[in-house]
Amino acid sequence: MRPEHRTPRSPEQLEQRRMTAAALFEQGHLSQAAIARLLGVSDQAVSTWHTKWRAGGTQALAARPHGAATLLEADQERHLLRLLDQGPGAHGWDDQRWTLARVNRLIDEHFGVRFADPSGIWRLLRRLGYSWQVPAARAAERDEEEITHWHTEVWPQAKRRSSS
């Protein structure tokens, strides 16, 4: 059965793909090129994995921690998501924009952790599923009934007059 060709994201998913390759190496029935096609990776990646596997077995293909340690624990990240979902207004800001500085302040107030570099906040938010977006600006005086009336009554009449 052919695995899906979605790009793995987590270290666990990447490791699982390498372990699948190791199992295929052990069977010895497929070429490295065939394994690469099956797993949706480059021939070079499989060659590197094979070299490591021959030198150290499946343990050599195990995931190893890399990068900086996260500043928030998993339960704190879940709590942060709930706080962010409440919106900036619930935390004292008068508009609906989450800025990196605001998120940093929120994290500091609730968890006692302050990010020194805004890029760390951005990476955290991206990992949690947030993206950079600016809300559509809407006038506070916006009258939905008047807008609907204009679209359904005024505009059709004006359109008819201009086409005659």
TrEMBL record:
This is Winged helix-turn helix domain-containing protein. SUPFAM superfamilies: Homeodomain-like. InterPro entries: Homeodomain-like_sf, Winged_HTH_dom. It comes from Nocardiopsis rhodophaea. Residues 94-153 form the Winged helix-turn helix domain.
